Amino acid sequence: MNQPVPSKNMSHQETDPSPVNYQDLEQRKISNCYVHQEHLHTINLTVRQGEFVAIMGPSGCGKTTLLRIIAGLEGIAAGSVVLQGQEITQLPVNRRNTPMVWQNFALFPHLNVRKNIAFGLTLGSHRKGEVRQKVQRMAALMHLEELLDRRISELSGGQKQRVAIARALITEPPILLLDEPMSALDPHLRVRMQGELKRLQQSLEISFFYVTHNQNEAFSMADRIVVMNQGRIEQVGTPAEIYNQPATHFVAEFVGNNNLFDGKVTDVNGTIITVQCPQGKIHTLSDQPHTPGDNVTVVVPADRITLADQPGALGNTIQATLRGREFLGSQVIYLLETTAGYEVQVIRQEAFSQSLDIPIDAELYLSWRTQDTVLLGERS
Fold first, then answer.
1. Looking at the whole model, is its pTM more than 0.90?
2. Spatial CA neighbour of 251 closest among 233, 265, 264, 272
3. In the chain, N or C terminus with fewer CB closer than 10 Å?
4. Distance between CA atoms of residues 203 and 130, nearest Å
5. CA diameter of the chain
6. Long-range contacts, 188-192 (Cβ 8 Å, 24+)
7. Where are the beta strands (DSSP E) in 149-279?
8. Do 256 and 299 form a contact (C-beta atoms < 8 A)?
9. 82/313 Cα distance (integer angstroms)
């Protein structure tokens, strides 16, 4: 009855059952129909023991709904949720042991830090001495020992986040659900908390299921990333797989900074595919079968393209006119227009950019290596 662990580049996955040795969380063909705009289609996903899985996608794609289903806060029309081999689909929230950390932390303002952390234990049959010891250990783990008697209103954003996580972990759950827990933090604090959260997850060896809009958060912390769109899973893979090998047009457009060139296959020479695009002729690599006449899309990352005033020798070169630039501190985004009127983005490190005194409307050559491309099928 168990589902296999998703392999890389799974798109809209619906796989046949096969056994696995252990999984923290299995969601078996979940679907959900209700009146909100979000609508989950069939979902097959396994979170392994001790794995950090991040879910990314645009607003309304179903990320938070998926978390709420696991937590028992949303019902499902079909399918099942399995935790450590036990189906929990019909279990009430208080019997699932799937705590959730919310965007606003949802702390109890009338309780101090100590009582907030201990709250989950007070719902069970724990002795006062045991509760006190567990709270003390969790406070030490989260660096909250000096704050136990503070009121919630006296805490900073980062301290509130640590209290919310400590409260969720006090019951020693097999999995922790996190719904954009850093969205309310300042950027510099968010970066610091990323490292702390990853350290915590690795030290406890429990599964984290983490919803975020922030790609940097997902790429820096997650073992695997789930990209969702319109209630479906578009792709599951490691951060490197998601970034370097997008499986669908949506992932290529949503993740990173990619240029997408639509065209038609004109030649196939082994794994080297030649595609005629309005921007020019492009050579790409693919181990998938293609034939001349196929409609395809070539994906070229913006940070793999070089700029020069003469043709390069990297396998692919097109001409374009510089129309603008955006300074981002360590990087500069160049906005260019091809002779066919299409926009192309190029990202360069500032150290490189300072050596190029390029005027607006300059005619340039854009070059990139054949192996730095990804070939997708026709847009659906």
1. no
2. 233
3. C
4. 22
5. 77
6. 189/157, 189/158, 190/214, 190/217, 192/158
7. 175-179, 207-211, 224-229, 232-237, 258-269, 272-277
8. no
9. 54
